[in-house]
Amino acid sequence: MTPLCRCLRILARKRQQYRQAAPECREPAASATPQQLLARLLVLSASPFEGEGRGVAALLPLNALRPEMYGDGAEQWWMEIPAMVQYLDGHSKFSLDQTTWEHKLLEFLQNTLGRSKESGWSQDVSQELGRQMGSYANASVEKAFLYKALGTALAMSKDVASVPGQLRKLLRMADCLTGAERECLGSCLQLCARDQLDATLRALSDFEEEMVEGEDSWHLRKDLTPRDRDRVKSALLLFYSSAAAQAPPQQLLPQLADKIVPKILHHYSTGSQDTALTLHFIESISAVSLAVQRSGESQPHQLPHKQVLLSQLLEIIKAEPPSSLLSPVHQKAMVTIGHLSKAKQPLSCEKNQELMEQCLDSVFSLPPQEFTEDVGPIQTLYASTMATLEGLMQTLLEGDEMPERLQGTFWLLQRWLVSEQVWEHARAMRVSTQLLKAYLQTVTITTQFPPGQFSSLAGTLGPYTCDSLGSIRQGAGDAVGCLLDIQVVEQPWTLWGQDKQRALRRVCQELQSAAPEEVWDASVKLAKMVIRALPKAEILPFTQTLLESLGAVSQACDQASALWFHRLLTDRASDLKDTVQAILSITSLLEDPRSFPEGVSLLARALVQVGEAPLDRILQLLSPSLSSPCEDWRVTGTAFYAELMSHPMLQQRKLLKPVLKHLVAGAGDESDTIRRLGNMAQGVPQKVKTHRQLLLDTLRHPLAEPSSPQVVGESLRALTKTLGQLSDVGRLSQPMATQARAHFPHACCAAFQACAPLLGLTGLEGAFDSGLLTGASGERHRHLMGHVCKQLAHKAPALLESLVTETSLHLHSCWEGIRLAAAKLAGILAENMEAQHVQQLDLGKLLWSLRALHGDPSTAVKIAAAESISTMSQKQQEALQETGPKHTAPRG
Q: What is the pTM (predicted TM-score) of this model?
């Protein structure tokens, strides 16, 4: 073609010379029209370095024919064509950017047609371009450019009525089943719709009607497979979105609601919705969204069906398999959601949260392919999907409410930050860090920060600086660094110079160390920076956040929480004042695995006093623990919830039943668990009847198989509380009474051991069993009682006198065992009294009660009473001899 173009140039010059010599000479009948030459030479120029540089060879004949054949349209060619030739001279086949070059050619065509004053000139050029379609292969550069040139020519046509017909003819001729042909048609429609949107949409509508009616249309033949039918639908999705892509906003926006968006939704919903069709649907929505964004703020219109489109995209994401990532559907859907969210009609907070949650869930739960060492298409797809997710999260955060949205986003991320799967909380940390970096770029001194944001986020992310995975430690360090920078913006009076910036960078580098000691040291350094920047009003919320994280991730993170806690108490003790002691007792308990549940219980009781707001948040965070496969996490959650059995919030959140289930499972081993079941009876009595049988069976179990006096005692107390809420226990009353009576000695033993220290009794640390207290015979019993009475006489005379009075009352009990024990105790009391106590105590009533037992039906009681009377009388005589005649006789 290059030699031919050169020949054509020479002929053009000779023809011009001949015409000048013989101006009245007629044109040869077979001569090519100017439109034919322009169309043919432009298409040849699309591949300028093919055939020994045919681009320049094709452009120069046009310049030679300019004066004679092209009139007004070519008045600027003398500048435009040499400029294009010069552009080609500066490039080679390997350096030329094809898109840029084609843009120059199309701009040249558009300017030429725009300058022409002949009404049919553009129509003639477009018809000639259409006739050339069969001259080039479908996949060729020339064919693709031919479609673009046709779209440009139709856009410039002054005969608007003829445009739909030419487009319909083109649509009928094209092979929509071929991907390359679909793309070429799309580019033609896109360029045409820039100035002929109504005509383009009319042509598409007519084309669809023809397909439905089946008039001379092969597109929906009966023998088409379902896959081919989907290809036709994919083509229509592309055509409608292409028509919208570059249309003028004032023309486009009114058409979106009535024609474009409904058509896109219809063709997708009526297709098979396989991966290929789904991707075309997503791309079409993306193109429409970008077109609306280009309309600018001056346009009052909103994107129609925006909520429907968002919901459809969410359904697509939900339908993707959670176990693999085999296509770019996830990624492209999230890109499109980002474009849609920027269109007018702002999303509500609820919809924004729903979009974030669904996108996070769909990506974070995928298998950890991006952590493998292999590099391939799947790993590349994982990486790009994660990057898209980060970009989408940043987009959804943008707006006037960004600080508040950031806090809500971290509530969503929290579930993944505490995931037991390392790759899931690694992804969550990566997104957290990127969001804070993006947030930092937007904050100014006028930004309104939500109260407690710094303490909440720093307390959440800080413990991860000791995570087992280096990337998580690094991410946590970077995130906390961003928070410190944000805090400086919020409090500009805070000193944060270059020295601290360098120190922060060093800490983040040290967090990457493989040596645990260096990691701990770096974490503590970072904790100091955070605690120094912590406003006084945020100290307690910061403390609460650190405690919330305990038991949620790993032992290393728990230890980091303890380290940060200790640093807080050390550096800000003066701000904590009276709170320090209460916090210290909880810290100390949480550090020891043996006392960890006790520490959690104490923490729960303390937080009840703080108020419902933080408690409700903690209940929300801990709710997954009850069904967690991790035993430590279940123990932590159960211990916390168990302390709140009487709290109405537990019932409001419908957590009472699962907590009860876990408490019952451990009730045979822990006295604390049984105590909590008793608390439930008092706190939510209306639930006792609902769970009556389960509670009674659980609380009776320790009585049937006792493990310790403490457990038996707690069981008896819990049964008392539970039975108090039941009007009738039916056939269980007698068996329960029998079981309880058998354990009274155990209960007495437990009560005695608990009360002895409170009475100041010492020397009782030696092991003894319940029989030693209740078995009223034997030297060990007498020795123990005597030891107790001597101590009471010296340390608590008033209590000794009360014991004498109580013993007198028990001598009149209807139970033989109690009368016998009281009679023997009276003798032990007298035997261990010193003379001064005999003088001071009123023993008359005790002697009278003992003498009344002479007629007792029990021989053992009568013998014990007689022995005690004898002992008491002897003690009185000894007291008289020691004190002498000057003292009066003792009372009684």
A: 0.64
Q: 591 falls in which pLDDT band (50, 70, 90)?
A: low
Main-chain dihedrals φ then ψ at residue 450, nearest 5 degrees: -60, 140
* pLDDT beyond 70 at 265: yes
Ramachandran category for residue 53: left, alpha or beta (phi over 0 → left; psi -120 to 50 → alpha): left
649 or 222: which carries more pLDDT confidence? 649
Q: What percent of the chain has pLDDT over 70?
A: 76
Which amino acid is present at 668?
G
Whether the CB-CB separation of 543 and 550 falls below 8 Å is answered with: no
Six-digit token pair at 262? 């409904």
Instruction: Note the pLDDT tens digit of each residue in 428-475.
Output: 999 999 999 988 888 877 776 777 888 889 999 999 999 988 999 999
- The half-sphere exposure of 307 on its side-chain side, counting CA atoms within 13 A, is 7
Taking the C-alpha atoms of residue 443 and residue 673, their distance in angstroms, rounded to an integer, is: 49
Condensed to tens digits (0 to 9), the pLDDT of residues 335-386 reads: 999 998 888 777 777 888 889 999 999 999 888 875 555 567 888 888 899 9
Distance CA 58, CA 861 (A): 134
**DSSP summary character for residue 469:** S
Q: Where are the alpha helices (DSSP H) in 491-538?
A: 498-510, 516-533
User: Which uninterrupted H or E stretch holds 392?
Assistant: helix 377-397
Judge contact between 860 and 823, C-beta under 8 A. no
Tokens read off for 398: 């943008």
Task: Return the closest-CA partner of residue 211 out of 160, 176, 166.
Answer: 176
In sequence order, the 6+-apart residues with CB closer than 8 A to the CB of 532 are 571
767 pLDDT band, cuts 50/70/90, is very low
CB 225 within 8 A of CB 184: no
Closest CA to 244 of 258, 261, 265: 261
**pLDDT reported for residue 349:** 79
Q: What is the pLDDT of residues 781-818, one digit of tens each?
A: 677 777 777 777 676 677 778 788 888 888 888 888 88
Evaluate if residue 424 carries a pLDDT over 80. Answer: yes
Of 734, 549, 553, 719, the residue nearest 628 (C-alpha)? 553
Give the pLDDT confidence score for residue 710 in this predicted structure.
72
Residues in CB range of 743: below 8 A, 6 or more apart = 703, 706, 712, 716
In angstroms, the CA 272 to CA 643 distance is 54
**Residue with token string 């339908």:** 319
Contact by Cβ (8 Å): 172, 130: no
Tell me the C-alpha distance between 76 and 67, whole Å: 11
Average pLDDT, the chain: 80
CA–CA distance, 15 with 641 (Å, rounded to integer) = 99
CA Rg value for the chain? 46
If DSSP codes are grouped into helix, strand and coil, which group holds residue 287? helix
Which string of DSSP letters, residue by residue, matches 115-156? H---TTHHHHHHHHHHHGGGGS-TTSHHHHHHHHHHHHHHHT
Helix (H, G, I), strand (E, B) or coil at 832: coil
* DSSP assignments along 203-221, one per residue: HHHHHHHHHHHTTT--TT-
CB atoms within 10 A of CB 545: 24
